[in-house]
Specification:
This protein is α/β, with parallel strands linked by helices and 475 residues long. Helix content is 31%, strand content 26%. Helix 1 packs parallel to helix 8, helix 3 (47-64) packs antiparallel against helix 4 (80-104) and helix 3 (47-64) packs parallel to helix 6.
């Protein structure tokens, strides 16, 4: 007998399972279809495992510098197997938590590959889901009132290059390393590439980053990119910007990989034990039955309206598969908004200018709103204030004074346009700036907020005051 649901979600990553929980709270009968594990990329192949490795790298560096804090230790030794075991333990614990949430919400879970069928005896419109079960049993057929596509993304590869999981890696492959290489070349200096460069350098790997664009972290404010390049250079990371890798010249030769790239009209050859390709992610939307629908695809992503409806009004899509900001917290909020719209509500769609973005390297990067260049391109007359962590007592106590906080405001209205941070624990501090953006605050209102002393967050208050030249402790 075919089971009927109010909502079937294809993909149980962060966006999918959060949407399922919210739909359950709203009284819907919900099922999720997941071909791998609940939690998706973020929990198993992205956010959580990579941050666990980054934390181990940070601790390793702290112990190596413990003499600076008056703590004398013998030479610390890195046990990468234990690092990986700790990472997996964290993932497993969170995985159990997601499973428990599904049980509390009475959400049915189908383990298999879901495909959308066209009109049939089950439904006059596309939307019936056929599930190819992982256990090889006969396909399930489930009929929903609504469908939510939350199939996420996978790592992009350069045309003509295939990852082999041993010498040529994606970020998925790199998370499964059991032994660190001595040398690695990272193709791509965006968020993922810089996080891996930072982590591996802190673990003692010799790292080279090849970035096609003129600067690393190209979506961040230019001042942040420059500061990060300085910080990476201090770690010993070699960064080459304006580097055009030639895919057909990338070859595995014994235990090494050779790469050729064009830089300043010259052909440069380099070699390393491994190559990590981190040039972005592509939507995972093949073989899910979209050809049986009128759903529109542009540039490889599903097209939706502001409430995440596709051209088929009963089929919604969220997260990485619709493009935009490919962030777990964005997918979660998109999922909640989509479900609330299905339920007849009038949710607030995600506004990209109100979304905090983070890079969990060392130093960390966090931002919300417009960069200085973006603000000027939009026609704003801007004024800025920057405050260095070097003048913050808590940063000195913590032992890391790298970086700064930068505020960008509208010179005519004082409206806050953007906040950009690089330095210690800024990914934990950016929410204050994001809230200020949501509340449409002026920079001086943030400056008037009394920040505790000593705290790293004092840099936020001082940077806000610096916009009008009122920073108390200089900058």
């Amino acid at each position: 007998m075919t089971k009927e649901y109010d909502l079937v979600i294809i993909g149980a990553g962060t966006g999918g399972y959060v949407a399922a929980i919210r739909a359950s709270q709203l009284g819907m009968k919900v099922a999720v279809v997941e071909k791998e594990k609940l939690g998706g990329t973020c929990l198993h192949k992205g956010c959580i495992p990579s941050k666990a490795l980054l934390r181990s790298a940070e601790v390793f560096q702290t112990v190596k510098k413990s003499d600076d804090f008056g703590i004398e230790t013998e030479k610390p030794t890195l046990n990468f197997i234990k690092v990986q075991e700790r990472k997996q333990g964290i993932v497993d614990q969170l995985y159990k938590g997601v499973q428990h949430l599904m049980k509390i919400g009475k959400i049915d879970i189908y383990e298999g590959h879901g495909r959308i069928l066209g009109p049939s005896i089950f439904s006059p419109s596309p939307g019936t889901i056929s599930i190819e079960n992982n256990d090889g049993s006969e396909n399930n057929m489930i009929v929903p009132k609504y469908v939510l596509i939350a199939t996420g993304s996978s790592p992009k590869l350069l045309p003509g290059i295939e990852s082999d999981g041993e010498h040529i890696l994606t970020s998925d492959d790199a998370l499964e390393l059991t032994k660190l290489p001595k040398t690695i070349t990272i193709i791509g200096g965006g968020v993922i590439g810089i996080e891996w460069a930072s982590m591996l350098a802190d673990f003692g790997v010799q790292v080279t980053v090849l970035e096609y664009l003129p600067r690393i972290l190209p979506l961040e404010d230019e001042a942040v990119s420059k500061e990060m390049q300085r910080a990476m250079k201090k770690k010993g990371v070699k960064i080459v910007t304006g580097a055009k890798v030639i895919p057909e010249k990338l070859k595995v030769q014994g235990e090494a990989v050779s790469i050729s790239y064009e830089h300043k009209d010259k052909l440069v050859d380099t070699e390393s034990e491994k190559v990590l390709i981190s040039i972005g992610r592509k939507a995972s939307i093949s073989d899910i039955g979209l050809q049986n629908t009128d759903i529109k695809i542009e540039d490889g992503y599903i097209v939706t309206n502001k409430y995440y409806q596709t051209k088929e009004s009963h089929i919604y899509a969220i997260g990485d598969c619709i493009g935009g900001l490919q962030l777990a917290h964005v997918a979660s909020h998109e999922g909640i908004a989509a479900v609330e719209h299905m339920a007849g509500g009038n949710p607030h769609p995600v506004n990209p200018e109100l979304v905090a973005k983070c890079t969990y390297s060392s130093p960390e990067v966090a931002s919300v709103g417009l960069t200085e260049v973006e603000a000027k391109e939009k026609g704003f007359e801007v004024k800025t204030g920057t405050f260095s962590f070097k003048a913050i007592g808590k940063a000195l106590v913590y032992g890391d004074t790298t970086g700064f906080v930068k505020f960008i405001s509208d010179a005519k209205t004082d409206d806050l346009l953007g906040v950009h941070m690089i330095g210690p624990h800024v990914t934990d501090m950016i929410s204050e700036a994001a809230l200020a953006k949501v509340l449409d605050a002026a920079h001086w209102e943030v400056g008037e907020t009394i920040h505790p002393h000593p705290s790293l967050s004092e840099a936020i208050g001082e940077a806000a005051l610096a916009v009008d030249g009122k920073a108390i402790h200089g900058g």
